[in-house]
Predict the structure.
Amino acid sequence: MKLTRIGALLAVAVALQFFVGSSSHRSAWPVDFFLLATAVVARGGDFVRAVLVGGAVGMLEDALSHELLGMNAFAKAMLGYLLALLSMRVMFGGPWAVGGALALASLANDLIVAVLAALLLQAPVVLLSRESLWRATATGATGGLLEAARIFPWRQWWERRQLRRLR
Amino acid sequence: MRASNPVVEVVGPRPRRGGLVLASVLIFCILILSAQVPARGRRGSLLQAWILTASAPAAITLSNLSRAITRAFDSGAELLTTRSENSRLKEEIVKKDQELFTLRARVTSEELDQQLLAGSSVLPQILTAAPILLVENRAGLQSAVIGAGAQQGVSVGCPIAVPEGLVGRVVTVGRSIARAQLLVDASAAAGARIVRTGEVGVVRGDGRGRLRMQNIPTTSSVQPGDRIETAGIDGIYPRGVVIGGVEKVSRGSLFLEISVVPTASFSQLIDVLVLAPSPAREDAASGGKGAQP
């Protein structure tokens, strides 16, 4: 993926995160757009870019919302690598697999942050909370839908539609 | 649309370079985290603690050597200057006694002033209203980014609230935005008081959107429905801001285990009020500044 595209992707992720975060309905569909951005880059199979983008968006997320810089950066860099590895080793055939992988990645992100917070801040470990499960579901479903939209044969569908109209 | 079953196919690139970058990024993250994490007993950052530990043997050896040399030098010099030193020390002691007397009187006067100030913190002063820009809830760590910062007079430690109740406190301040720790964060706490019985305890977030009140003895008559408000004893939150209501009371080994439902709706925050920091905190800040050279 080109650097300009990565830049645009990150800008969109930040914009969406703020857009949803400012809404009073933020908890209705709490998608982790930073993780989605990491996954999109990782899908290209470039390990270096996936790790760097994961680290960068994680650092940004930490700067915005965490006491310590680096917890999400650590988690998302690791997830970027794992997702790139997954996309290179396993060719995903559909939105269900992508959605499932993203949901698992979201839970893994929470797990890593919880462990780091427990180790470094002596914070109580809170795992598999309702919010965490719902975010994993929303992130997975959104990723699955994006994948479905990506692989959908839009051109053939449009041509068929035009043909149907002509008849 | 393609089939939704994953098809396994080994492509086979060697992600060695990616692995190196990953290792570098993770090490960088660990170093950054270490630099920020307070060591046990708040003695500085963990990185500092590591560096100190590593350099301790050399530092101790050098210190011992330096002391031995200084002691030998001093003992030789003392023989020559003892008489004049003695008279100088006597004069210094007289001066110090006078200073001590003045300082004691000043401390007593300031304590009285502080008691008066503490009494006046019942009514929290509102600095500004700010929109919520982002709410993060991950692994029990709950925080919000608010649209007010140093420009609006917001400073670290300012409590934030909504008309329904307390929301949290500001922990990082930027020029025009600030980050706040929400009261339901797993590591947040506030001094609290049961309004009906007047008993004082500590309310802590559980990281899942609820609160727990601790340190209330088993002899208390607290019951579901009782209102909980800030006690003003923690030096952060002003007295008398509503926190929530008692949902459930169960008996623990030493203290009651009290589940509290916050009155502020944390999932639907849109705007918050930023309150002036507690007078005790302001005093501490000004005292800290005054102590600096």
In short: The longest strand of chain B covers residues 126-138.
